[in-house]
Amino acid sequence: MKMHTMIRCLSAIVFSCMVLVSFTPVHAVTPDEVIIGLNVPLSGPYVLQGKDQLNSYALAKEEIDAAGGILGKKIRFLIADSKSDPKVAVENVKEFVKQGVDMVTGGSSSGVAVAVSAYCQEQKKLFMATLTYSNDTTGKDAHRHTFRETYNAWMGAVALGRYLKKNFPNKKYFYVTSDYTWGWTTRDSMKRFTGSEAASDVLIKLGTPIDSPLYRQAVQKALDEKAEVLVLVLFGRDMMAGLQACMELGAKDKMQIVVPNLELNMGLGAGLQANAGILGAMPWYWEVPFKYGFEKGKAFVEKYRARFGTTPCNGGATAYTNLMLYKWAVEHTKSFEPKNVIRALEGHTFVSLKDQETIRPWDHQTIQSVYVVRGRDPKQMKEPWDIYEIVDSYSGEELLPNEKENPVKLEPLES
């Protein structure tokens, strides 16, 4: 089966499974419920990442409700398709607000995250961002009502830059970049920390059809320039199409392929041969808790597999953690009031599915470890999900920008 056909089939299957449960209207919200809005991609280039998030939110909800809920309230989800479109996502949140939402979370596009963050700030609603790696989310577009548990482009680029400088010194780079905030900030961070500021760059619009000639044209340009390291700043279905173009043109045999932000579903969707040997960074991978002995992470992976017959991705890990962080903050303050929850989360240190993390109080970016991974040769895989090997790891303290490098000034909280 050709790559574009396989991806369309996967997306269709995922969407058909979710559409039955995702648009049920919510009526008769009671005082015994806490309302959480899940604004996730159920269609478009990031649909598989949306499914992973929904699965993880479901697991977290089951655990929380079984333990008595949040301050005695059971969770009610409002679920909407963001389509990875900022305008659509904001309209979804407007509907959530009408229905009395207490907290908004989810998403796989930084464009969506930035837009939703701004609207939630306006409405004084808490937003726990999920799969968003743009520096801007907790940088120039940061807001007091938004928190990001996952890492940012800067952190991944510092980790990858150190690994690449050590193992691929003085190489010629070429970039293929998704043309929106995540792509731009990731490319710029990668150029900065690999010393490849002068490298050529081709922009590709988010959601460009998988059978578009633009992917092949971009990779061919890298070949024509005799690049030695090709950085695909693409995500989701777009990344799968980019890797397929590399396979078709033989680029993998001529240069090192780097995908700055890797994710399990992307690697599986691209195909095992296409995924083998590529380098990237991750804030979490299912193998991390087993390799380093993180018991909560092991339990999460095992529950996820037992329930869904597959393995969670890093976006799913963030989704699960977001709900658990929200529960902790509400119960710590004995209040659902956003300003009280915000104060509790600022500076909070916790352990979730890996090692210790801390939420910085001044930009709401979480300090956490980052892993450099390489795609495994299919012959070395021990199970179907064993597609990456961890080749290096770094602590968050050595990766994050400081206050001078990220001069954020969050809004004051109302008294």
Structure description:
By secondary structure, the protein is an alpha/beta fold. It folds into two domains: 3-151 and 300-365, Response regulator (Rossmann fold, 3-Layer(aba) Sandwich), CATH 3.40.50; 154-282 and 370-398, Rossmann fold, CATH 3.40.50. 44% of the residues lie in helices and 18% in strands. The strands form three sheets. A seven-stranded mixed sheet has the order 7-6-8-9-10-14-15, sandwiched between helices. Strand 6, helix 6 and strand 7 (200-204) form a beta-alpha-beta unit. It is globular. The model is unreliable at 1-28 (pLDDT under 50).
Topology:
Blueprint: H1 3-22, E1 33-40, H2 47-66, E2 74-81, H3 86-98, E3 103-105, H4 110-123, E4 126-129, E5 146-148, H5 153-167, E6 173-178, H6 181-194, E7 200-204, H7 213-224, E8 229-233, H8 236-249, E9 256-261, H9 264-270, H10 272-275, E10 279-282, H11 287-292, H12 295-308, H13 314-333, H14 338-345, E11 349-351, E12 356-359, E13 366-367, E14 370-375, E15 388-394
Parallel strand pairs: 1-2, 1-3, 3-4, 4-5, 6-7, 6-8, 8-9, 9-10
Antiparallel strand pairs: 10-14, 11-12, 12-13, 14-15
Helix pairs in contact: 2-13, 3-4, 5-6, 7-8, 8-9, 13-14
